[in-house]
Design brief:
Low-confidence stretches: none
Radius of gyration: 49 Å
Strand content: 15-25%
Largest sheet: 5 strands, mixed
Shape: rod-shaped
Helix content: 55-70%
Distance between the termini: 28 Å
Structural class: alpha+beta
C-alpha cells in the first residue's frame, strides 16, 4: 500500500517518461529538416559564388573551357557542364554514396543542387553536393542531454515532494492521529488544530460537526437503553411476582393453574429477551471495557460447575480438555456470558444421553455436541432465527456470542463433522 503523494509522483513520472520517449523522433525529424534547409541555402550561395568568380576573370572561351575542365578534375563532387539551354527549374536531391575525400569505406549522405549558371554569355549546368552531418548522432547527443535533465527533474521532484509533504500534510496527519485515538464511549471531544489551508480547515470543521452529532446520538441512545432497562424490568418483575402468588393459591382450578403457568413462562421468556436485547445494545454501543486480563479457564470451570445439574438431568456425557492458566485480554462479564451461552446452547440441542466435548487452549476454545444434521450457518448467528422447534431460548444467545467475539476481535465459526455440532472460537 502506498501513500497519496507516492501515487501522484508515480503518475507524473510515467507521464514525463512518455513525453521524453515521444520527443526523440520529434528531435530527429526537426534536426534533419533544419540541416537540409541550411545546406540548400549553402549550395545556392556556392553556385552564385562560382558563377561570379568565373565571370570576373573575363577570359576567352578557350581559356574558360580549360579552366572548367580543370575545375571538374579538382572538384569531383561539383561539376560544370555546357548546356545549350538553361534548366527550366533547379532541382534538389539527397543521395548516399562513398565520400571521395575519405580514405575509408564510409557511406555518407549528400545534399545536392542542380542549377543553371551563365558564364561569358554561355549556359552551363552546375551540380553542387555538400556532405550532410549525421543527424542520428546529433539527435543521440541531444537525447542524452535531455535524459540527464529529465533524471535531474524527477529526482528533484521526489526530494521536494518528500520535504514539502511533511510540512503541507502535517495538519492532515494531526487530524488522522486524533481520529485514531478517539473513542466514542470515552466522552472526550477532539480539538483539531488550527490550519491556514482551506481544504484541511473545511475537513476539520466537517469532522468536528460529525463527531458532535455522533456523541450526542450516542449519549441519547445510552440514556434510552438505561431507561428502557429499568422501566421494562420493573413491571416484568412485578407481573412475575403476581403470577407466582397466583400459582401458590389453593383456590385455582386446574385450568386456571395451567393458564397462570403459561403466563409465568411467557413472562420469564420476555424478561430474558429484554435482558439480552439490552445486553446487545450495550455491546454494540461499546459500553464495555475490554482491556482487563481475564482468566478464561477459571470462568469456564465456574460455568461448567454451575450447569452440572443440567448435564446430569439430560444424562449428557461430558469430555473436557482444558489447559490451565489461559488468560486473555477482554471483558470478564462478557467472556462469562459467551461461555454460558455456548454451553447452554450445547445442552439445549443435545439429545438425552448424548455427548458434549469442551476444550480450551492458549488460542482456541471449542464446544461440540452430538447431533443429527448440520445447521444453516447463514442463519445460525442471526437474531431470533430458529434452528429447532425448541422455544425455551430467547433466540439471541448465539447473536450475543458473535457480538462479544466482534468486540474482542475474536473469531467464532460453526461446522458439522462426524455427527458433531462444533462451535470454534479463536481467542
Amino acid at each position: 500500500m502506498k501513500n497519496l503523494l507516492q501515487k501522484s509522483l508515480k503518475q507524473l513520472t510515467i507521464f514525463a517518461s512518455i513525453v521524453f520517449a515521444l520527443s526523440i523522433p520529434s528531435y530527429f525529424l526537426l534536426v534533419d529538416w533544419i540541416w537540409l534547409r541550411e545546406l540548400d541555402e549553402n549550395n545556392e550561395l556556392i553556385a552564385q559564388r562560382i558563377e561570379n568568380e568565373f565571370n570576373e576573370q573575363q577570359i576567352s572561351d578557350e581559356k574558360l573551357a580549360e579552366n572548367i575542365a580543370f575545375w571538374n578534375e579538382i572538384q569531383p563532387v561539383s561539376r560544370i557542364d555546357y548546356s545549350q539551354q538553361p534548366l527550366p527549374k533547379d532541382s534538389l536531391y539527397t543521395i548516399t554514396r562513398q565520400n571521395p575525400y575519405s580514405k575509408h569505406e564510409v557511406i555518407d549522405r549528400f545534399r545536392g543542387l542542380k542549377t543553371s549558371i551563365k558564364i561569358n554569355n554561355q549556359h552551363y549546368v552546375l551540380v553542387v553536393e555538400t556532405n550532410v552531418e549525421e543527424t542520428e548522432e546529433t539527435v543521440a547527443y541531444i537525447a542524452m542531454v535531455t535524459l540527464l535533465f529529465f533524471l535531474i527533474l524527477v529526482v528533484g521532484f521526489w526530494i521536494l515532494n518528500r520535504r514539502l509533504s511533511k510540512k503541507l500534510w502535517q495538519p492532515f496527519q494531526d487530524t488522522l492521529q486524533k481520529l485514531k485515538s478517539f473513542q466514542l464511549n470515552s466522552h472526550k471531544e477532539i480539538n483539531f488544530g488550527e490550519t491556514d489551508t482551506i481544504e484541511f480547515a473545511e475537513l476539520n470543521a466537517t469532522l468536528d460537526k460529525l463527531l458532535q452529532h455522533n456523541i450526542a446520538t450516542y449519549r441519547n441512545q445510552k440514556e434510552f437503553t438505561e431507561n428502557a432497562s429499568h422501566e421494562l424490568q420493573t413491571p416484568l418483575a412485578i407481573l412475575k411476582n403476581k403470577v407466582d402468588l397466583l400459582l401458590q393459591s389453593n383456590d385455582l382450578t386446574e385450568r386456571q393453574y395451567h393458564i397462570a403457568e403459561e403466563m409465568n413462562k411467557a413472562l420469564i421468556r420476555s424478561s430474558r429477551i429484554n435482558k439480552n436485547l439490552l445486553l446487545l445494545a450495550k455491546i454494540e454501543n461499546s459500553q464495555f471495557d475490554s482491556s482487563e486480563l481475564v482468566r478464561f479457564d477459571t470462568l469456564l470451570h465456574q460455568s461448567m460447575d454451575g450447569l452440572q445439574e443440567h448435564f446430569k438431568e439430560k444424562k449428557i456425557n461430558i469430555t473436557t480438555n482444558i489447559d490451565a492458566d489461559v488468560a486473555v485480554k477482554g471483558n470478564g462479564d462478557l467472556t462469562e456470558v459467551l461461555i454460558n451461552n455456548l454451553l447452554i446452547n450445547a445442552i439445549r440441542h443435545t439429545s438425552p444421553g448424548g455427548s458434549v466435548k469442551v476444550s480450551l487452549s492458549k488460542s482456541d476454545f471449542e464446544i461440540s455436541n452430538s447431533g443429527e444434521q448440520a445447521l444453516n450457518p447463514d442463519l445460525l448467528f442471526k437474531r431470533f432465527s430458529r434452528m429447532s422447534t425448541d422455544n425455551s431460548g430467547s433466540g439471541l444467545g448465539l447473536s450475543i456470542v458473535q457480538e462479544i467475539c466482534r468486540l474482542h476481535n475474536w473469531q467464532v465459526t460453526y461446522s458439522f463433522e462426524n455427527g458433531q455440532h462444533i462451535f470454534f472460537v479463536h481467542i
